[in-house]
Design brief:
The protein is of the alpha+beta class and 276 residues long. The protein is 26% helix and 43% strand. The longest helix is centred in the first third of the chain and has 20 residues, at 71-90. It starts with 8 loop residues before the first helix and ends in a 7-residue tail after the last strand.
Length: 276
């Protein structure tokens, strides 16, 4: 087209080369093949094949094409790129490193945890607790769980309390088994004042006897657990946990009672299989 003076010939050839570069990219096999073809193409496509007449005709054709914009170079490049793409497709490819396996989600059996231990109101007022939780979601080292616990404590010569609470928690696991577990608790509590006779002053200022059945209250709080879970052997899934909490109760003698408590115990992840 450029030999006839077509002004669009150069633009079309440039677009073809740009498409060629976008298609081939920087593949080392393709680049090596293109370099070899650039060195051998003049011999393959422009060398005389017999007689002075053929040589003169080839020189005249190359000169004419070069005179009209160097189109021979563009044609060679497109031809070289096409051949290099075909040859590189047949070349053996370098082996790729296998991708790292995605972390396995916990099996349905291993989603459950049960635990028990010491519950200390203000650390020194002794009690105990029993808990269970279910892992609702896990992404790599992060997990989200729902759970509940039952427990109580005794404060000598003051009061005793029972509670039943639900909780939501997020666990962040570190190697080789250490984890942090912040959680929020919300539930029901019941307190019993120490002593035989219980009296209170009502809203009108009169003294009246309190029911011996105790007082219900609303319980809420936050805690941060730190623990370690065994990863190997026959007891894999057994964990040790210590969790300080700040807990509020309302009403407690018509006020909000804020307490510091400490939980220390064990957890067992049901159905887990340890790595040998």
């Amino acid at each position: 087209m450029r030999e006839l003076g077509d002004p669009f010939g150069v633009e079309e050839m440039e677009a073809a080369v740009e498409a060629r570069e976008e298609l081939l990219g920087h593949d080392p096999n393709v680049n090596a093949t293109r370099s070899w073809l650039r060195e051998t193409a003049p011999v393959l496509f422009h060398a005389p094949r017999g007689g002075r007449e053929v040589e003169e005709r080839a020189k005249h054709r190359r000169g004419a094409v070069t005179h009209h914009g160097g189109g021979g170079v563009w044609v060679d490049e497109v031809l070289i790129s096409t051949l290099s793409l075909l040859l590189s497709a047949a070349a053996p490819q370098a082996p790729q490193a296998p991708e790292a396996p995605a972390p396995e989600a916990p099996s349905p059996e291993a989603r459950w945890r049960v635990g028990a231990g010491y519950y200390g109101d203000m650390i020194t007022h002794p009690g105990s607790y029993l808990e269970f939780s279910w892992t609702a979601a896990q992404v790599r080292s992060f997990s989200f769980s729902l759970g509940a616990d039952l427990g109580g404590y005794h404060h000598a010569r003051n009061h005793s309390a029972l509670f039943a609470r639900g909780n939501v928690a997020t666990r962040v696991s570190f190697r080789p088994g250490i984890f942090l577990e912040p959680r929020f608790v919300l539930g029901y509590g019941h307190t019993f004042v120490a002593g035989d006779d219980h009296f209170v002053i009502d809203d009108e200022g009169f003294l009246r006897e309190r029911s011996p059945g105790g007082d219900p209250n609303f319980v809420y709080g936050v805690g941060l657990g730190l623990g370690y879970e065994l990863q190997k052997g026959p007891v894999a899934g057994l964990g040790f946990l210590i969790r300080p909490e700040i807990v509020g109760r309302y009403p407690y003698n018509d006020f909000v009672l804020t307490q510091f408590s400490l939980l220390a115990g064990v957890q067992w992840r049901i159905g887990v299989r340890g790595r040998r």
